TrEMBL record:
The gene is Fgd2_0. Residues 222-307 form the PH domain. GO terms for biological process: cytoskeleton organization; filopodium assembly. The keyword DNA-binding does not apply. Residues 5-193 form the DH domain. This is FGD2 protein. It is found in: Cytoplasm, Cytoskeleton.
Amino acid sequence: MQEPEEKKIALELLETEQAYVNRLHLLDQVFYTELMKEARTGKTVPEEVVKMIFSNISSIYQFHAEFFLPELRKRMEDWNRNPRIGDVIQKLAPFLKMYGEYVKNFDKAVELITAWSEKSPPFQELIADIQKRKVCANLTLQHHMLEPVQRIPRYELLLKDYVRKLPPQSPDRGDAEKALEMIFMVAKHSNAAIAEMERLQNLWVVYQRLGLEDDIVDPSNELIKEGPIQKISSRNNSTSEKYLFLFNNMLLYCVPKVIQVGAEFQVHLRMDVEGMKVRELKDTEFPHTFLVSGKQRTLELQARYGE
């Protein structure tokens, strides 16, 4: 007799979960454990660095190995009597929020592996030694570390497929649909964590270019636009090259530094966006000219191409 489609998908979920737990075992019990042992005894890499590379992989491994995989296995053994997995996945979904921390840390972890492989030959040798083992299947540590990042989207795809193939009267329909909604929310949470991390990283780069001035560095700021601008001097009818950074709450009027050691720009003026007015000027000698007036002062500026 042909297996029902939804059972095939549920079995695929179980098989991929078993393979995934093996991968987590490799990350937590082999790579992390052995690198940690090396850090404690050989002092070739600080313990803190190893902890930062692997983030909360131990919690993720324990959850899947000790709870989700056994629950799923039990369900599939009992499928003919009780064909459902939706309720088990509902129990799983809230715990997937702990992936936010791992996903957010992923880029940093990969950077640390690269940096410490160059700095510490024994660290690099130990990783290379583990990668040669059969269990690694000729794949790098970085490749294995990507697996948890890709796991939540995989659950979402499998569960979507499962719900699609369920017969309308299936006793699992209500639970499976609710589980899919929960997984979707977790995936969104995970993506939002990545987007927020990228925003903060980009913001930090901008702050470094501005010389990390105390009154400007604020994690809640948002950069809207930046670019070169010409400052018009009415005194001698000339222009000089300046640079603007527009944030959600302030406009920074900067001068590019000639010798770029450290900061790239020097902030000449900070204008609050609140109460700021921008007015276009019709000037034949200087096209694309506009006035920016704020509480602090008024600037006459010229854009390059009317942008």
